[in-house]
Amino acid sequence: MKILLIGSGGREHSLSIKLNESPRLSKLFIAPGNAGTSEIGENIPVKETDIYKLLDFAQKEKIDLTIVGPEAPLVAGIVDIFVSHGLRIIGPYKNAAMLEGSKEWAKQIMKECNIPTAKYERFNTFESALHYLTRKNEYPVVVKADGLASGKGVTVAFSEKEAKHALERCFIQKVFDSAGLTVIIEDFLEGEEASILAFTDGETVYPLAPAQDHKPLYDNDKGPNTGGMGAYSPAPVVTTEIEKIVLDQIFYPLINGLKEKGITYKGIIYAGLMINDGKPYVVEFNVRFGDPETQVVIPRLKNDIIDIFEAIENQTLSNITLEWEENAAVCVILASKGYPEEYEKNKVITGIRDLKNNKSIQVIHAGTKSADNKLLTCGGRVIGVVGLDKDIETAISRAYEAVDKITFENKYNRLDIGSKALNSISI
Questions:
Q1: pLDDT (tens digit per residue) in 53-89
Q2: Strand order across the 267-276 sheet
Q3: From CA 194, how far away is CA 233, in angstroms rounded?
Q4: Which residues of the chain does CATH 3.30.470.20 include?
Q5: Which of 209, 287, 364, 423 has its CA 20 to 30 A from that of 263?
Q6: What 8-state DSSP symbol labels residue 192?
Q7: CATH number of 190-319
Q8: Burial of 383 from C-beta contacts in 10 A (0-12 / 13-18 / 19+)
């Protein structure tokens, strides 16, 4: 089977590794890919948002199945366009992708479907939002840019000063362009975060193994939000009972509620959760695989992932049974100096070659490129180092042992990835 995988980050490298395990794969193309994916398949120099060039390539190469990694092409309607030309593709249609494309729309859907989430208000001007904050005068609050902001449009503000700064970034500085011209202000949810991704064909929903992401830049969840500085799976905070609640009170109400609106949701659905006293609340929905959650969940999946993708596309997912490795995975992100703002580039990366034969480690490329026979940084999140072992504690050790062997100038990583899991286990 000839497959086109769209995207260039760590999520796509992790998926390419999994796809390459399938005996059904005959050829893998990645557009545009990175230095890691180039070792598995053929990178195609087409941007993930250049939908008609991607369509042209898929038609010329007679691609059997396209898999969309990032959110931007989904929100732009790539699935609708590919399907209208008779091509098979994994991901939600444009109207369903609005769950991630507009936080306001997503909150309205959650309200209509009685999905537990934080109370919120929406604002289109700096003045009206600031007036609301002054009148409310309760902190912390969560300020969110309505549109796509690469995971950086959310601020947990612990004071009026921080909240005002977040509003200024959206409305006045226009850091997120049009994505920040509408803002959602939510009540702050107490609890512990977790992520549950699920496969769905619009009828059946199969949750994947739970994970926990680490969004803030610094240890102990301090500093600005990022696309994710690390993750681990399984997540002890997500008990069997909570998984059932998520399936029955979040995923199925969402899929069925969209169906009532004439929207069939097929692909991957991601629920970012806050768990408080055994009850999950939805922080956000994403319409694709998470990053870096994919890097710790997909390596634990026993199934041939091509079989799953075909079942989603054919709406026969109920015929599949997901099987999982009885192990743990921990991913530590190595970032460039300056991330998540303007960051350094073109730093030489060394040490990866020494880890290639280590079966307990996956080195996942994200912001990397090859030039003049050297591996260079070219993104904010450069590499994800995944430790795989029998339990979280050992997987953490594996990951950080490997982290110490990979170097580039001004490398930065958190030192506490997975510590929440250890705390949960010890309670």
A1: 999 999 999 999 999 999 999 999 999 999 999 999 9
A2: 205-207, 192-200, 267-276, 279-286
A3: 10
A4: 190-319
A5: 209
A6: E
A7: 3.30.470.20
A8: buried
User: Which residues are paired to 272 by β-bridges?
Assistant: 195, 284
> Are 372 and 327 contacting, i.e. CB atoms less than 8 angstroms apart?
no
Q: Which residues pair with 333 in a beta bridge?
A: 384
Taking the CA of residue 356 as centre, how many other CA atoms within 13 Å lie in the half-sphere pointing to its CB?
7
CB 54 within 8 A of CB 6: yes
In the chain, ranges of CATH 3.90.600.10 domains:
328-426
Burial class (CB in 10 A: 0-12, 13-18, 19+), 221: middle
- Which pair of structure tokens corresponds to residue 125? 């001007």
Which residues touch 169 (CB under 8 Å, ≥6 apart)? 155, 175, 176, 180
Residue (of 400, 398, 399, 405) closest to 351 by Cα position:
405
Within 10 angstroms of residue 426's Cβ, the number of other Cβ atoms is 7
By three-state DSSP, how is residue 106 classified? helix
* Positions in the chain whose pLDDT score sits under 70: 424-427
Alpha carbon distance 382, 377 (integer Å): 6
Tokens 């994947």, located at residue: 208
Per the omega criterion (within 30 degrees of 0), is the bond before 216 cis?
Answer: no
Considering the chain, tell me which residue range(s) the CATH 3.30.1490.20 domain(s) occupy. 125-181
Q: Are 64 and 50 in contact (CB under 8 A)?
A: no
In the numeric block, which tokens belong to residue 12? 């796509």
CATH topology of domain 125-181: Dna Ligase; domain 1 (3.30.1490)
Q: What is the pLDDT of residue 175?
A: 93
Q: Are 123 and 183 in contact (CB under 8 A)?
A: yes
The structure tokens listed for 199 are 């496969």
**Would you state the structure tokens that stand for residue 416, as one six-digit string?**
């506490």
**Whether residue 207 has a cis bond before it, omega within 30° of 0:** no
**Residue 175 DSSP label:** T
Q: Residue 426's pLDDT is what?
A: 54
H helix or E strand, kind and range, residue 223: strand 222-225
Instruction: Quote the CA–CA distance of 73 and 294 in Å, as a whole number.
Output: 18
Class of domain 328-426: alpha beta
